[in-house]
Write a structure and sequence with these properties.
By secondary structure, the chain is mostly helical. The protein has two domains: about 100 residues, Helix-hairpin-Helix base-excision DNA repair enzymes (C-terminal) (Endonuclease Iii, domain 2, Orthogonal Bundle), CATH 1.10.1670; about 100 residues, Endonuclease III, domain 1, CATH 1.10.340.30. It is about 60% helix and about 0% strand. The chain is built from 13 helices and no strands. The structure holds iron/sulfur cluster (SF4). This is Endonuclease III.
């Protein structure tokens, strides 16, 4: 299958069946989203959503975060991964937002990446979710699913290479949605260890399925009727 056709069928499926995907992180404004995304690095959204209500009660604005030390923040985020580093990042993030961005979350990739704890992936999430820009954040799910489906070549070995390939083929207006589609598909169906191909709606376009799964399925000998529960012919 040609790559353009694979992309087209992937986009058609999700546009039809899941037209309005959203991030699973709970947030009420851009400040809360960027804090939640920083906390979600190497951690599940579920875990982050458990702790952010109290964190946002304690530190409701960038100014509150700016006035806090890492030690002040740590007790509220201790159950996420890498809490020491993240507490330092959040304290620094609050300070920079207040000192250089008038306590607003900036809207350019370059400015976002100046904030502590904010790399290209986090900046792209903010660009896409808050500012609805055609930014493709490549996390572990997007990386894995793009490769398995065959949307990107094997030579795309870094998140940046995958990002560039995806934005080349996906229309700008669909990039923010495609980011969520790939994440959610990776989180619930095309999971890392054992992709749930038997319930996946994308088997007919999936390169991994064609290569690794279809040949096995074809080679499973049919059970005699009395063993498969079906009545004898
Ligand atoms: S068919 Fe399997 S490997 Fe391919 S996208 Fe679906 S779950 Fe992932």
């Amino acid at each position: 299958m040609r790559k353009a056709e694979r992309f087209q069928r992937f986009l058609e499926y999700f546009t039809t069946h899941f037209p309005e995907p959203e991030t699973e992180l709970a947030y009420g404004n851009p400040y809360e989203l960027i804090v939640a995304v920083v906390l979600s690095a190497q951690c599940t959204d579920k875990r982050v959503n458990l702790i952010t209500p109290e964190l946002f009660r304690q530190f409701p604005t960038p100014a509150h975060l700016a006035a806090a030390t890492a030690e002040d923040i740590f007790p509220f985020i201790r159950s996420v991964s890498y809490p020491n580093n993240k507490a330092k990042h959040l304290a620094g993030l609050g300070r920079l937002l207040v000192e250089e961005f008038n306590a607003e979350v900036p809207s350019s990739l370059e400015e976002l990446q100046r904030l502590p704890g904010v790399g290209r992936k986090t900046a792209n999430v903010v660009m896409s979710v808050i500012y609805n820009q055609p930014a493709m954040a490549v996390d572990t799910h997007v990386f894995r699913v793009s490769h398995r489906l065959g949307l990107v070549p094997k030579t795309a070995k870094t998140p940046l290479a995958v990002e560039k390939e995806l934005v080349r083929y996906i229309p700008e207006s669909l990039i923010p949605k495609a980011h969520h589609w790939l994440i959610l598909h990776g989180r619930y169906i095309c999971v890392a260890r054992q992709p749930k191909c038997s319930i996946c709606p994308l088997t007919n376009i999936c390169a991994y399925y064609a290569r690794q799964v279809a040949p096995l399925v074809k080679n499973i000998p049919s059970l005699p009727a009395e063993e498969n529960g079906l009545p004898s012919a």
